[in-house]
Design brief:
The protein is of the alpha+beta class and 266 residues long. The protein contains eight helices and eight strands. The strands form two sheets. It has a six-stranded antiparallel β-sheet, with helices on both faces. A two-stranded antiparallel ribbon has the order 1-2. Strand 6 and strand 7 form a beta hairpin. The chain starts with a helix and ends in a 17-residue tail after the last helix.
Length: 266
């Protein structure tokens, strides 16, 4: 990146931070004075940031204020910070109960990003670093996050898009995936077996925020030799209870949690 481009980015960041003053609105002249920038530079920055939704202009006064995208970014930061604080003790509990790798993932543009993780103590275990992205349709966490997504948002992510096959067992038929997501919503947990990687299985359950929206998935993963059908059914309950525990830490009332209900539909 050129020095000029870096300077533009820096000036855009400085302009946005000017709104930390708590002023409801700021005009171009005032922004130029505070930042020591020329009128044309401020104008270009304001036009660009407004087009991206980071700022919005009041048509009555001509002043600028922070836009809805800044609110959304702030909410994303708050959720991720809250998730980390809520996840730590719950992941430790889940790993102790199951002796398997426990992790928390969030949905981002059709992929799962793992934001927190505790490794299994087993010698034979999974090695997936925090921050790794995986396609949502072939992981248990992704199935949970897709299943509890609002229908229009889910359609926006899935309709007309291919479902890449990572293994011969990956679900690639949209109708089959839709049926699987209905099952996940009905029973409250998801599983993925040989779908992202041969020889690997996982179980996931939803994590809700104070409004009841599913903002993350908590899961365990292990080699399939330790996570066969019987083990998955046995361990689904502690995974769901971990999801409930983390949801309570995010403000979701205990009376509204699932209570670890498991349905025998497989």
């Amino acid at each position: 990146m050129s020095d000029a481009a870096l300077t533009t980015v820096q000036n855009a960041a400085r302009l946005l931070k000017a709104f930390l003053s708590r002023d409801e609105q700021l005009g171009p002249s005032e922004l130029g004075r505070r930042l020591g920038l020329g009128k044309s530079t401020v104008h270009r920055l304001l036009v660009t940031l407004t087009a991206e939704g980071l700022l919005e202009q009041d048509p009555r006064t001509g002043g600028y204020r922070l836009g809805i995208v800044m609110f959304e970014l702030g909410e994303a930061v708050r959720v991720h910070m809250d998730l980390h604080a809520a996840a730590a003790p719950v992941l430790a509990m889940l790993r102790a109960q199951t002796r398997e790798t426990a992790q928390v993932g969030v949905l981002d543009r059709g992929e799962v990003v793992y934001v927190d993780r505790l490794e299994s103590s087993h010698t034979l275990r999974l090695f997936t670093e925090t921050g790794r992205r995986v396609p949502a349709h072939c992981s248990s966490s992704g199935k949970v996050l897709l299943a509890f997504l609002a229908a229009p948002a889910r359609a926006g992510l899935l309709d007309g898009r291919p479902l890449p096959a990572l293994t011969p067992d990956t679900i690639t038929d949209p109708a089959v995936l839709s049926a699987e997501l209905r099952r996940v919503r009905a029973r409250g947990w998801a599983e993925a077996v040989n779908e992202r990687e041969i020889g690997v299985a996982s179980i996931a359950a939803p994590v809700r925020d104070h409004r009841g929206e599913v903002v993350a998935a908590i899961s365990i993963g292990a080699p399939i030799v330790r996570l066969g059908a019987a083990q998955r059914r046995r361990l689904a309950r502690p995974v769901m209870e971990a999801g409930d525990a983390m949801s309570r830490r995010l403000g979701w009332p205990a009376s509204a949690t699932t209570g670890g209900m498991i349905h025998a539909d497989r």
